[in-house]
């Protein structure tokens, strides 16, 4: 699908599954988190574009606390797959790129940065939307062994590890384990009224 189509109209895949209560740009509905990946490789140019978009997220005092550790070679991917949880190993093995998102908990002057995780979440959102515009799929993986990842990837103690992001072109869900295939559809959202409060939190 072209960039224009992604921004201007819903994909066939999300029709019937996702309906917004307000007229948001279809880009936000077209972004979802599949688990099936094809064998098509992600170009270095597209990978750089995705990471560049993430790097332009807003951050407190412009500290830019996010850090991206990228695996794209067979050797690197083998290491990353080794610290994924068992369920995620079942489907993430075909993803051609894995990105560990971390954040520096300290500001440059050594003070604690209370916004590091919040800001890195914004960077992940930018990354996911830019990937969608390029026709790529992403899925955030929270199920992984953080201590093992820290040791294997030589991650400093002041970096908090948040998620491993799979990146690639969507594949055929029939190639997924049967138990996962039924979950390979765009999910929905709660009513907006259940998460938005007017003036104060209501019971």
Describe the structure.
This is Nitroreductase family protein. This protein is α+β, with helices and mostly antiparallel strands. Helices cover 33% and strands 14% of the residues. The chain has a domain at 34-173: NADH Oxidase. It has a four-stranded antiparallel sheet with strand order 1-2-4-3. It is globular, with a radius of gyration of 18 Å. The mean pLDDT is 96.
CATH class call of one domain:
Alpha Beta
Query: In DSSP terms, counting alpha (H) and pi (I) runs of 4 or more, how many helices?
Result: 8
- Strand proportion, as a percent range, falls in 5-15%
Largest sheet: 4 strands, antiparallel
Whole-number mean pLDDT: 96
| Helix/strand/pairing category | alpha+beta
Rg to the nearest angstrom? 18 Å
Q: How is the largest sheet built, in terms of strand order?
A: 1-2-4-3
Q: Tell me the CATH architecture of one domain.
A: 3-Layer(aba) Sandwich
End-to-end span in angstroms? Answer: 43 Å
């Amino acid at each position: 699908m072209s960039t224009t189509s992604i921004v201007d109209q819903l994909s066939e895949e999300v029709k019937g599954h996702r309906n917004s209560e307000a007229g948001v740009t279809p880009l936000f509905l077209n972004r979802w988190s599949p688990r099936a990946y094809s064998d098509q490789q992600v170009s270095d140019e597209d990978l750089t574009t995705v990471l560049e978009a993430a790097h332009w997220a807003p951050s407190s005092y412009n500290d830019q606390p996010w850090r991206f550790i990228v695996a794209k070679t067979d050797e690197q991917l083998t290491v990353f797959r080794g610290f994924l949880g068992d369920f995620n190993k079942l489907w993430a093995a075909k993803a051609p790129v894995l990105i560990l998102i971390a954040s520096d908990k300290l500001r440059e002057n050594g003070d604690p940065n209370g916004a590091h995780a919040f800001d890195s979440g914004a960077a992940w959102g930018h990354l996911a939307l830019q990937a969608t515009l390029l026709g790529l799929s992403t899925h955030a993986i929270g199920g992984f062994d953080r201590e093992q990842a820290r040791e294997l990837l030589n991650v400093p103690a002041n970096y908090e590890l948040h998620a491993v992001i799979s990146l690639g072109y969507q594949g055929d869900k029939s190639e997924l384990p049967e138990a996962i295939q039924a979950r390979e559809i765009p999910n929905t959202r709660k009513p907006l009224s259940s998460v938005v409060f007017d003036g104060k939190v209501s019971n």
